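Dear colleague,

Thank you for sharing your sequence with our group. We've completed the structure prediction you requested, and as agreed, I am returning the results in plain text so they can be pasted directly into your records. Please verify that the sequence below matches your submission; if there's any discrepancy, let me know and we will rerun it promptly.
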Amino acid sequence: MVDQIKQLAQQYFNDVVSFRRHLHQYPELSFEEYKSSEYVCSILDNHSIFYTKGIVKTGIVAIIEGKNPKSKTILLRADLDALPIEEKNDVAYKSQNIGMMHACGHDVHTASVLGTAIIMNQLKDYFEGTVKIMFQPGEEVLPGGSSLMIKEGILNNPKVTVALAQHVFPSMEVGKVGFREGMYMASTDELHITINGKGGHAAMAADYINPLVVAAHIITEVEKQFPFIIDTEGVARNVQNNIPTVIAFGKIEGKGATNVIPETVYLAGTFRTMDEIWRKEVKQKITNIITFLSDKYHVKVDINILDGYPYLVNDNFVTQHCKESAIEYLGKENVEDLPLRMTAEDFAYITQQVPSCFYRLGTGNKTKGIISGVHTSTFDIDEKALEISTGLMAWMAFKLLNA
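Please find the predicted structure tokens below.
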């Protein structure tokens, strides 16, 4: 069967490349993926794969039933949205939508899963259970399309027993994939803080309360209260409890001048960790720090902490099973162990409810100069990865369903 799946992946490789290039040329932003959704539906129609569309407006769920379809259900997930980035690549499939680009590889994910769906549809007489395929909107922005599709029942009818998703990895050479059991990616919360002081002429110190000073104290006090060290994997860990933790402010905006003290200052930052109890404690401590400083300096502070994605955890059994399948498919030399990442991913919502495996697909090629990272204007992939991605996911799904 592994040879048959490899043959099918090769047979449909050019089709999958065309899927990816079409999606790449016509990117759409989060929760606005109407034409992308229509295109995915057209491919499913061409291959007589049953689906339901219009879930959270642009989401799609396809169903492929094998033998004994009620015995188990595997969920395969792809994301549809692009980023607000102007593409700088000089390629035939360059984005045609100004200011939008598939710079995070969601075009790759969607095209790959379409290819996997085509393969699994041809093999439905050979596997047990049901394949449920999820094309979701809005992975890039809160609250995440995955969470909204869960609310719409994506994990039920039929009930999902295991889930898989992949993500492009430009720093890994094409031909390789990577896995990590247990906690893999961080939760993510957004910090939005507005400090309302009293503006005035910079020379008249008695007449103003400088919100920039308060902002500086907030940043330094948060740093002081949550000291960290960098471990051997390059992950920031809190000194007191060794939990991976990042609190960073990336924006400070105070529209004053050399002699003008602004009335308000805006701070924006991120908080990431891998422990839900600690996550709750830290957000409360940040609030307490800000409240204390606002009272001390007699300013009004508006605090808005937006709850983002939970941490992503890979089920040990499922991930080990997938890793072994990948070794069978690609060879041991092409399967790597991954370090922790403090980046976030809304597939985490699914991993919190269903035994899952989220793995990385090598898409880089240093020889060809394909080295740009995700979320950059020159991101691209070695399209050979599309043959690997479609066949490997089909093989892993096949093995899990027949386990």
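Summary note from our side: The longest strand covers residues 162-173.

Kind regards,
the structure core
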